[in-house]
Amino acid sequence: MVSLSAALRPDAHVVIVGAGITGLACAHQLLTLRPDVRVTVVETQARVGGLIKTSPFAGFEAVDEAADAFLLRAPAGIDLARAVGLGDQLTSPATGHASVWRNGLHPLPPGLILGVPGKLGPLATTRLLTTRGKLRAALEPLLPRTSTDPDCIGGFMRKRLGNEVQENLIDPLVGSIYAADTDRFSLAAMPQLAELAAGGRSLLLSARRRPKTPPVSAENPVFAAPRNGMGELVAATERAAAALGATILTSTRVDSIDPGTGGCSVHVTTDGTSRSIVADHVVLCSPARHTADIVRESAPDAARMLGAWEHASVVMLALAVPRRSLPRTAVGSGYLVPKPNQRFVTAVSFASQKWAHLGRDDVSLLRVSLGRDGAPQHHHGDDELLSFALADLKLHLGVDLVPSAVRLSRWVESFPQYRPGHFDRVAHLESHLTGRLPHVSLAGASYRGIGVPACIHQGFTVARRLAGAKP
User: Fold this and answer.
1) Which residue, 27, 417, 428, 455, could crosslink 241 as a Cys pair with Cβ 3.0–4.6 Å?
2) Which pTM value belongs to this model?
3) Which domains does the chain have, with CATH numbers?
4) For each of the chain's 471 residues, which pLDDT tens digit applies?
5) Rounded Cα distance, 468 and 471, in Å
6) Nearest-5° angle of CA 266, CA 269, CA 275?
7) Contacts of 381 by beta carbon, 8 Å cutoff, 6+ apart
8) Residue 437 — φ and ψ, nearest 5°?
């Protein structure tokens, strides 16, 4: 983040660009800490929420079109939910059991840390690895230390644990979260894996030394979400920020930012009418490529770097199918498809089994993900995408599914890809930005964490710095 020499003066004006969860969390936190400042949130779209969206589907009041939960291990998500009045409205998945499809559905071995085995027993019995793959992984404690300098998950894990663990366990888990190809993704971007890699010579021994955590259960959930979907977290944060005095402008495009004495001029356009907003500080929570356009004239070097950010596109299909049509093998919360076995579908969520409030006797909801980094699918037509999804579901589950309702959501260039060396590039970018726009900060999925809690945390961090509070 861009450093600030001092906290904001009373009655200072902060403009936040982007009304996704990062920008809204930043606005709420800043006004909570500093009710004496003014905050304006500017959003290009007609709605707030960014990549979080929930809508009615197939007779259900609220079914998520993108992320359907947030991690509880990272506290920012639950902290925000409680702060905006949703603490008693959260629910967690009814089942945490997931599978991987490899010529059939196979349960993920217990004790995995983002695919890295924490126990050798389950690894020895899983059918996701061949005998050769298991023996290769078991040799890992005998190998010399592997450098993390290349900062690549795939390269590091292949050297430590072999190709099969990387391709059938680690890549599906990480890739399903970030639409990523872990052979081109930063190791440092996954704190749990980075900590294991830094914990000693052996990954397996580092994993075994970690404090034991109780099994996932109703009393020990990993994820949570509002009962009315993740969109309710956005809506509640928007309401709470507005109640504290935030002005939220939708359908308003930020065209450029000019530096000024002690602040900035933010040039915006609403309904074809342009005007300027004077700000003491600007927080850019927009995606990197959009941010590049905003700072192109005032910080051209930073704009060039932002414009080079790479993103993956994903299509999310929601399907309502007769409950009796699903085979007995369709158990748990869903399944992942390893990269070598992918055609179109990368992951399937059995939403009616994952979430108790989506369960019904007659209908089952499936959320099907298509596309990832290096394998986009969004350019296909709606009918083609549906046919691809149904063909893959038949291959995976062995049945012809006939949906009674279909909803298709295209998320084009929505998942920033953290290439090896990502955080060095972010630091380099911020140094350029500080030199040209000292009263501008960056936050959001493009920079220091992609998941919902990571985005909220970035918004909190900037707000606390601006407020003069301790991190």
Assistant:
1) 27
2) 0.96
3) 13-51+228-309+418-467 (3.50.50.60), 111-209 (1.10.3110.10), 312-415 (3.90.660.20)
4) 444 446 899 999 999 999 999 999 999 999 999 999 999 999 999 999 999 999 999 999 999 999 999 999 999 999 999 999 999 999 999 988 999 999 999 999 998 999 999 888 899 999 999 999 999 999 999 999 999 999 999 999 999 999 999 999 999 999 988 999 999 999 999 999 999 999 999 999 999 988 776 666 556 889 999 999 999 999 999 999 999 999 999 999 999 999 988 999 999 999 999 999 999 999 999 999 999 999 999 999 999 999 999 999 999 999 999 999 999 999 999 999 999 999 999 999 999 999 999 999 999 999 999 999 999 999 999 999 999 999 999 999 999 999 999 999 999 999 999 999 999 999 999 999 999 999 999 999 999 999 999 999 999 999 999 999 877
5) 9
6) 55
7) none
8) -135, 75
CA distances from 336 to 63, 119, 177, 348, 393 (A): 20, 21, 10, 7, 12
Q: Which residue has the tokens 């925000």?
A: 80
